Amino acid sequence: MSDLGAALEDKTVDAGGAPIVELIDIGKSYGNVHALRGVDLAVRAGEVTCVLGDNGAGKSTLIKIMAGLHDYTSGRMLVEGAQTHFRSPRESLEAGIATVYQDLALAPLMSVWRNFFLGKEIRGALGLMKTDEMKRITGDELSKMGIVIPDLDRPVGALSGGQKQCVAIARAIYFGAKVIILDEPTAALGVKQSGVVLKYIVKARDAGLGVVFITHNPHHAYLVGNRFLVLKLGGVALDKQRADLTLDELTAQMAGGQELEELSHELRELDTDPRRPDADRA
Ligand SMILES: Nc1ncnc2c1ncn2[C@@H]1O[C@H](COP(=O)(O)OP(=O)(O)OP(=O)(O)O)[C@@H](O)[C@H]1O
Ligand SMILES: [Mg+2]
């Protein structure tokens, strides 16, 4: 993790530049459920924007708007300065926005290299697949990212969760994404695997992509983020640059400091067992 820390120190300043994607006062209702209201977000090249929030806060709704799965119902979305409504995920992808969902859109039984080129296969005369070339490129691209997968013929299903996320990130970069959106990529991973994914988030950022990183985990966010947006009940509870925010503040915001205080009170009142460890000292 110390490499990661060093990488971050270099680039904690606002990378500036015009946003690639900008959401202005965006809102989304599903019938009379207001999943999002009044949210502003700017995705810039070379920056990681973290979106945090509790279950049901509106994180997935926010990225589905950028990914072309749902349209917004109020506000504006600008893509490279022009107001846009995506009518399908394909339109979002064509605009250079790659979305990596937690339950990845990788085919588990197909090999690593087939997945890397899925839907973008290189074909020669008579439509025959150029297998060797695709394998070579897959190997080159993964190793550029520092990902070592000894056998590219292995089915993707045999990779670890972290490796799968990394293959999906490397693929998005290779096929020219300008923005990569990751929905809770570390949620199901252990400490070490999470570290690997966080490193590729930094690599994607350093390759000049705008990264949107959705997570519940303030520690993961703080390690890689330039900007932090915390959603609560569909609204913005916090929106800060890294320089204006400490990890403690972010954690308290996520945990709901006040609510935790009350909970700890209630738990203490419940705990009247005389055999509890500190009973004799009380
Ligand atoms: N298709 C839908 N129809 C109706 N309501 C929806 C729909 N999708 C989401 N919602 C509602 O919108 C709100 C925000 O949901 P969303 O999935 O964006 O939250 P989230 O922050 O991603 O939560 P989680 O951390 O659990 O993934 C919730 O109240 C949810 O019930
Ligand atoms: Mg979600």
From TrEMBL:
Q: Which SUPFAM superfamilies match?
A: P-loop containing nucleoside triphosphate hydrolases (SSF52540)
Give UniProt keywords alphabetically.
ATP-binding, Nucleotide-binding
The domain of life for this entry's organism is Bacteria
Please name the GO terms that the record assigns under molecular function.
Answer: ATP binding; ATP hydrolysis activity
Ranges for the ABC transporter domain? 21-258
Name of one Pfam family that matches: ABC_tran
UniProt-listed PROSITE patterns: ABC_TRANSPORTER_1, ABC_TRANSPORTER_2
Listed InterPro entries: AAA+_ATPase, ABC_carbohydrate_import_ATPase, ABC_transporter-like_ATP-bd, ABC_transporter-like_CS, P-loop_NTPase
Q: Does the keyword Flavoprotein apply?
A: no
- Segments carrying the region annotation (Disordered) are 263-282
Name of the molecule in the record: Monosaccharide ABC transporter ATP-binding protein (CUT2 family)
